[in-house]
Specification:
The chain is α+β, with helices and mostly antiparallel strands. The protein has 5 helices and 14 strands.
């Protein structure tokens, strides 16, 4: 461990002057390992429908993001393709709302700002950056042209972090049969709490390079002595595919200004309320359809 810390200190010391004016852009690819077991054994689901569902889930989870950073600030946002007319509505649109958003981070202030749209209304979430207790393991490997070091931490699983949801399972055949009945009811009513559960905490593994001496990383992650090139958090992987340091053309790094200012807790409470309203409307529509 002493050798690892010495290496970090040497690299940081050699590049401190250059870091004063550093500007960089890093592209990340996301991938989520989804639990699709809830579709197994559903006799009413055709192979074509299952394929459509899996393709839509893949589109929602395999995305490209760009991190733009200087020494103390960064912005992180998705490269969004234009949607066809009619897309982005209903539950799919709500799930997109839960994932999307332009995030600005200021390390010196320990704060982040994230702009999100929810059903036609724009919010500006402003809150403190999460403080992860990273443990540098001493392992290293090459990622592209950079030497990366491994660090791990644990963090709470967010209330709306649906990527880590997993299907509830029975301990034996009888309990599993009972769970499948609950699954059917959950799909009919739109109340998925009886169908899925989530862990209280997730393990985060990050690979960072002290060769780029900034404390930034994708999404909410950062605070290590080097740019984070890869993150494995629960079922989600974020992998850096391209890095450009000090290009001639640079974008100003600044937070979004438009939207109603709320804390993360306030935004989550509003989102939860909107989701419940949508579930009740959807469930009521299904109920009327069954009654005809």
């Amino acid at each position: 461990m002493k050798k690892i810390l010495l290496l970090i200190a040497v690299v940081l010391g050699a590049t401190t002057i250059n870091a004063q004016e550093m500007y960089g852009e890093a592209t990340y690819m996301s991938k989520v390992k989804m639990d699709n077991s809830w579709m197994e054994g559903d006799r009413e689901m055709t192979p074509e429908r299952r394929k459509r569902i899996e393709e839509n889930m893949k589109k929602m989870t395999e995305k490209t993001y760009v991190l733009k950073f200087n020494r103390t600030e960064s912005t992180y946002k998705e490269e969004v393709a234009l949607e066809a007319p009619g897309q982005g509505r209903g539950w799919g649109g709500m799930m997109g709302t839960m994932m999307a958003g332009e995030k600005y981070k200021n390390i010196n202030e320990g704060m982040y700002t994230e702009q999100r749209d929810m059903m036609g209304k724009t919010f500006l979430i402003q809150d403190s950056l999460p403080q992860l207790e990273w443990k540098i393991t001493g392992e290293s490997r090459k990622i592209g042209n950079y030497t990366a070091m491994k660090a791990t931490a644990t963090m709470p699983s967010g209330e709306f972090d649906w990527t880590n949801f997993r299907r509830r399972r029975g301990g034996n055949a009888e309990e599993e049969a009972a769970q499948k009945k609950k699954d059917s009811i959950a799909q009919a009513t739109g109340d998925l709490t009886e169908m899925f559960e989530k862990p209280d905490e997730i393990v985060v593994t990050a690979w960072f390079t002290p060769e780029i001496p900034v404390q930034h990383g994708p999404d909410i992650y950062g605070g290590l002595p080097g740019l984070i090139l890869e993150v494995n958090a629960g079922n989600t992987t974020l992998l850096c595919s391209q890095i450009t340091i000090n290009p001639e053309e640079r974008e100003e790094i600044k937070p979004a200004k438009k939207g109603d200012v709320v804390t993360q807790e306030e935004y989550d409470a509003t989102l939860k309320q909107k989701m419940e309203e949508m579930r009740q409307r959807w469930s009521g529509g299904r109920g009327r359809g069954r009654g005809r």
